[in-house]
Amino acid sequence: MPLYHPGKIIAVYSPTSKDVAGSDSGTQALVEMWDENVFTCDVEKAIAPKLKEGDVVLIDYSPVSPKMMIPKQSVVKILRGPIAKKTMEKYAEIHRKRKAHETSSQRMPPQQPPSQLYG
Based on the number of CB atoms within 10 Å of its own CB, is 24 exposed (0-12), middle (13-18) or buried (19 or more)? Predict the structure, then answer.
């Protein structure tokens, strides 16, 4: 089953860039994900020339294979305009709610089990 996560491009590492020297012909990108994680991943060749800093992208998080549950982590789509804004806003809302829940859970004092009387 395909699974995708959105992120924002921080930097593009293209083999045609004068600032990048590499041993391969692929393009990679530094991506800040919707949940504030940051990582570098491959970019699909078909969209690599179109990718630029600030783009919102979808990252393929599907498993590499049914036997290896490691995510592919490859940029497969570029989102621009209203759809990019809508996508990131929705995920940001989810992230804010999660962080608020985690923060409120951490502030609660530990619960003591009720004492029991044995007679």
Answer: exposed
Q: Is the dihedral of CA 10, 4, 79, 49 positive or negative?
A: positive
User: Look-up: residue for tokens 């969209």?
Assistant: 47
- Tens-place pLDDT, residues 57-113: 999 999 988 898 898 999 999 999 999 999 999 998 988 888 777 776 666 566 666
Domains and CATH numbers, the chain: 4-107 (2.40.50.140)
- C-alpha closest to that of 47 among 68, 21, 78: 78
19 vs 41: CA distance, rounded Å: 18
Strands 74-79 and 38-43: parallel
